[in-house]
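Lab channel / #folding
Pinned by the channel admin:
"Please post every new chain as: sequence first, then the structure tokens as a reply. Keep commentary short and put observations after the output so the thread stays searchable."

First post following the new format, from NK:
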Amino acid sequence: MAKYMLVSFETCPWVQRAAIVLREKNVAFEFHHIDPDNRPDWFLAISPHKKVPVIRIDDKDSLFESNAINEYLDETVEPRLHPADPLKRAVNRAWTDYVPTFASSVTGCAYAATKEAYEAAIAKIPEAFGRLEKALETQGNGPFFNGKDYSLVDAAYAPFLQRYVFLDRIKKIGEIEKYPRLKAWCDALMARPSTHSFPEAEFEAMYRANLQKRGSYLSQFVEPARQAAE
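Reply from TO:
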């Protein structure tokens, strides 16, 4: 088995996608967290885009960009998470390509500077949720995107659905309840151990702390996660 080191910022959702796939495949790996405000020279030397994730393979080869990393892992490490059928596999890849748009629409409110910008960001959520709700209607009875089988699509969306849940706890958004298939999918992903790089309460506290540092409109509503859950 190859040796893997996954380079990350602690709360980066794009790195989380790769970590999820490694855990789903039961692959041992080193999680190496770096400071986004002080990126070391050795990291800059192996990351052409100067971004995470980067995965180091056997201390000699490096891959970057979460989609490329996950496709490589799925081609080289069993069990395969992509569907065997070429058409279904292509559909899965198409929905994985939608993740950046989905993430921006669903979690963009976290970065809004004003109430007006926050409300404008919230207004983008229904379209993104509606698209996934329709996709899930054609993908079987769940609990995952393809039905009973966990896939790279599940790993791709899990970090951003998790962050929606965190944002909804800070200031109630109340959108996901309108989409029953999406809500059930989100619940299944949140219950999946592979989703979590840290204990969930610990990670939620880290996410809230990062949000407060940004000083966005939403930061004024942040309470410690323990208090918010009471």
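NK: The chain has two domains: 4-76, 86-228.
TO: also worth noting, Confidence is low (pLDDT under 50) at residues 226-230.
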